[in-house]
Write a structure and sequence with these properties.
By secondary structure, the protein is α+β, with helices and mostly antiparallel strands. It has one domain. 41% of the residues lie in helices and 19% in strands. It is built from five helices and five strands, in the order βββββααααα. The strands form two sheets. It has a three-stranded antiparallel β-sheet with strand order 1-2-5, with helices on one face. It has a two-stranded antiparallel ribbon with strand order 3-4.
């Protein structure tokens, strides 16, 4: 199986990346998680994994290739809230980290971080939820 990584364009003035790539129907990248296909739209922006700078030596950079795909999907799930629940979104994040060869102990620490601190970002984006 060939693993395709998202094409990201740096946006230095925003300290973010924008998702680029094929977009025949507006889809730039997709992944399967728990039997569901998640389509990420062309132009979606991410700030990478929310890893405090003090933890970068242990966890890694927010844009480490082993975490950027999972972080991108997690940001999309939190922003759109078109999927099951916050807990499911966090589980998908951990599963994608492990799939992308992040050591299991790091994936669990990162999952714990989003479980403990992610509620604020989920609540901020509640208005984006599809009705």
């Amino acid at each position: 199986m060939v693993k395709l990584y998202p094409q990201l364009i740096p946006l230095p003035t925003e300290r973010r990346y924008m998702l680029d790539g094929p977009s025949p129907q507006g889809v730039a990248w997709w992944v399967k998680v728990d039997g569901q296909t998640i389509n990420l739209p062309h132009g979606f922006r991410t700030d990478g994994a929310s890893v405090p700078r003090v933890l970068w030596p242990v966890i890694g950079s927010p844009f480490d290739p082993r975490v950027i795909g999972a972080a991108l999907v997690h940001d999309y799930l939190y922003t759109s809230q078109n999927w099951r629940t916050r807990a499911w979104s966090d589980m998908a994040f951990r599963a994608l980290l492990i799939q992308d060869c992040t050591p299991a102990w790091k994936a669990w620490i990162m999952w714990l971080g989003v479980r403990v601190f992610g509620w604020r970002y989920w609540r901020i984006n509640t208005g984006n939820r599809a009705r």
